[in-house]
Structures are given as C-alpha cells and as structure tokens.
Amino acid sequence: MDFITIDFETATSAGDSPCEIGLTFVRNGKVTGTYSKLIRPPGNRYDFWNIKVHGIQPHETQFQPSFDEIWPELGPLIKDQFLIAHNASFDFSVLRRTLSAYRLEIPSLLYACSVQLSRKVWTGLEKYNLKSLCDYHGINLNHHRAEADSLATAQVCIKAFEQAQIESVNDIRTKLGTHVWQMQSHGNVRLGVRKVTREKKQPASSLVSKLNPASMFYKKKVVVTGTLSTMKRLEALQEILDLGGFPEEKITPQTDFLIIGKNESSGAGMQSLSHKQRMALEYITQGAQIKFISEPEFIHQLQFI
Which of 133, 134, 226, 291 lies 20 to 30 Å from 155, alpha-carbon distance? Predict the structure, then answer.
C-alpha cells in the first residue's frame, strides 16, 4: 500500500497561516522517508494559543520561505498522490485555503482521514486522537510538530491497513466503507469513491437537504466562544447543525473545532484568553486535537461548499 501522510501546524486561527508542514512517504507498507519545512506565515504573525500548542515561535520562521516559495518543491511531491491526514478536513482546508490565498493551482489528488479509518478498524476505543492511538499501539510521538505527527499518522495507518488487509485505495472504500475524497483544480473538495451500501434513512426534516459530507464540520463537534460579528451565536450553531455537524456549548477532549469570535483575545498571556480557550489548551496538552477557527475562516467555510 502506497500513500503519503500530511500534517500542518498553523500560526493563527486563519485557514491560510501554515507555519510548518510535515510529510511521511510510505511505499509497499513501509516508511521510506519524511519531509518537513518551517514556513513563514503571512506577516509572520502568530496567535498566542497556537504557539502554546506547537511551540513554534515567530523568530524561528522570520527568515523561512513563505508557502508560495516552497510550493515548486512541495507541489510535485503530492500531486496525483493518495494522502492521509489525522482529522483530514482541517489539513486539507489549510492546503486549499493557502493555495487560494497565493493564487496557486489546486492539485488533483485523493485523500482520506485516519481518524475515520481508525474508527472502522479498532471499534470501541475511548478516544481516537493521535496521542491516544499512539499510546494504544506503543508508538513514540513528539506531538504537535508536523513531521512527528505525519510520521505517527503513517505508523497508525500501516497498522490499520495490515489488520484490515487493505492493499489499495479501492479497498478502503469497499472493505472499510470509509470515504475517500478528491481534490480538484477546478472545483471544491468533492466526495470521491465510497462503499456502495444502502444509506441509513435520515430523519424527516426540511433541513436534511443541507447536510453536506464535504463540509469540514460534517460529523465534527464544534464550540463557539465570544460574540460573532456577522451572525448571532444561535444562527452559527444552526448552520453547523444543518451541515451535519454537532454544535456543543462546552469544550471537552472530544471537541474538534473551537470557533473564536472577533472580540476574543489572541493576546500574549493565558490571562487574556477566554475560559473555553484555556480549557481547549489544557485538553490539547493532554493529547486532544482541538483546532482553532477564526470567525472569518468559519464564514468562509460556510460559503465554500
């Protein structure tokens, strides 16, 4: 089985602010190499809570290349390949948003999510974040650095594919019934191939037609902190629900995304953060994979699909 795992670390809650990328290459079920780069984000600007997550400091990227400068090297590595990320909706949203921000061509590629794969292979685990899966399998992990996370994701996937006897991308959809997605240069991220089964009936509702598996919030737990300037919080939660997400009021270790209102601080100390932000950071230090989303990024994602 050949694939590449990918992981981004971001400098802010904006979707086009990667500060590090990590790739791990797997051929015939074996790791053959890794690739990692520090990236200078736009304006070399960082949010406090992002630094708390990955530890990358502005001085480390001040003289590093911007994303468009590494793309001639990076693009050929992933074009027309099969990629996997842990919580893929986040990483591939970062990829597409950053390419769009620099007006770079969107590459054609296939991708899948190792969280979904793991849920299919190892049913009944308490948690499926990367740290928990690594602990379960005895895999060493220097968490929240891109190269280390991509390598750990590759090792988890190798174990999953061995156990489920997965030998091709087609096996992922037919044996596991897990979605494989396609990124295309001329359109949005689209659902690619999947297992052909009878779909469970959705409850009758006037909103059912808005459910969208292509949304990054689909089947994800989402919490909002602060006051949104573009809509009321209840309206935002309804939008998430309509797309097939799970809006929640409280931060937990299982939260996937924390949407941050414009009035919430990105200041230089823990005391400047909201209670939900502090709780999210505490859970992240314990292995949770909560991603921060700014309000402009949230609105972009609602309009994107």
Answer: 291
Q: Which long-range contacts (CB under 8 A, 24 or more apart) does 155-161 make?
A: 155/31, 156/86, 156/114, 156/118, 156/130, 157/3, 157/5, 157/26, 157/84, 157/114, 157/117, 158/1, 158/26, 158/29, 158/30, 158/31, 160/114, 160/117, 160/118, 160/121, 160/122, 161/1, 161/29
260 pLDDT more than 60: yes
| Tokens 């779909």 sit on residue | 199
CB 164 within 8 A of CB 121: yes
Is the Cβ–Cβ distance between 91 and 85 less than 8 Å?
Answer: yes
Per-residue pLDDT of 109-123, as tens digits, reads: 999 999 999 999 999
> What phi and psi, each to the nearest 5 degrees, are found at residue 211?
-55, 130
Domains contained in the chain, CATH given: 3-191 (3.30.420.10), 208-304 (3.40.50.10190)
pLDDT tens string 103-161:
999 999 999 999 999 999 999 998 899 999 999 999 988 877 999 999 999 999 999 99
Under the phi-then-psi rule, with left for phi > 0, alpha for psi from -120 to 50, and beta for the rest, what region is 280? alpha
The answer for residues whose C-beta is within 8 angstroms of residue 187's C-beta and 6 or more apart is: none
